[in-house]
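During the first year of the project, the team set up a workflow for recording each protein of interest as an amino acid sequence followed immediately by a discrete structure-token representation. This format lets reviewers and collaborators read both layers of information side by side without switching files. As required by the reporting guidelines, we include two representative entries from the current panel. The first entry is reproduced here exactly as it appears in our internal archive.
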Amino acid sequence: AMGGWVARGFATDPLAYASADLARDAAMAHAVFAPEVRHPVEVAADQEAHLAAWLSKRLAVRIVPPRLDALGYTLIGGRLLPGDSGPVAQLMYRDAAGKRITLYLAPTRTPQRPPHGTAHEAAFAFSRIGALEVVVWKDARFASALAGEVARQELMRVGHAAFAQLEAS
């Protein structure tokens, strides 16, 4: 009992570690690719059907890039990246001023579709990594992170919209 009491101070929530790792990975990918002028993505938005099919095949889970135009963000395109337990996707968006945000999608180990018509909720967690705000959430199919040099409230607004569309797809 005493050992457990002492060890409790060293134990942490594995989900918190996973969220911190996801936020860090998403921030790093954003920092590397968002500033690119000529090659910010592998597959551009004008080939969106190809992008969705390619990423879906590589991640073994259906990906439909969220439509964020109504919120002021247009899809630029996406890319495939290595993740801790396999491939992940990064989708990049920009606003009218050219500011970019990225959506980082890591499939869960055993992605499952929720039953049709079932509403699901996700817990959102924030991180600030350097100049970047990052919001992380997890659902039945993805561990997701949205990163950008935008206000936290703005990122949350876009994150909720992306979550809803990913759940519906």
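The second entry, processed by the same pipeline in the following quarter, appears below.
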Amino acid sequence: MIEIKSPSTLNEIVESFNDLHNQSTRYWNLYQTEQFFAKLEDAWSPADNVRHLNKSNQPLILALSLPKLLIRLMFGKPSSSSLSYDKLKEKYLSVLAAGGKAGKFAPKERKETNLEDFRSKIMLEREEIFQKLIATIKKLPEDSLDKYNLPHPLLGKLTVREMLYFTVYHNQHHILVVERRKKALQK
């Protein structure tokens, strides 16, 4: 299964993203196309999960590319130090347990006639987003990660470090959810 060490520094965050990307690429590629698009009972299909991740990862590239002054003006400065990766993960899971939903980041229902082409499109978009995100993250100075806030639709304002932690865990979380649902269906 997908294993990620709890990152702390910027280099560890980048390493976690790279590890997660490599492991998750292998994971999503294990699915035959028909399985990739098959709903897991009343839950999203693996493809829907990837589409959701694409949709939620994309805005982070733009946010991290904004001038720092604009980020400060729009979202204020942090009022406390960044949570650890594990604490942020706990916070996210508790919000989900309380009913938190994907909202506008949920994938829209689509009816495609050529699933192979659609799968290729989804996975190409995933790869492009990952490459842009990693390139953007690598440009960040370590000391800036705790100086600026970014908005999260469920968790409120997060420091840049916390947002990166969230993004790492969020990508892992969706694989864990798909795997859990898949196993439940096999029983």
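For the second entry, the following points were noted during internal review. The two ends are 19 Å apart (CA to CA). Strands lie at 149-152, 156-159. Both points are flagged for discussion at the upcoming steering committee meeting.
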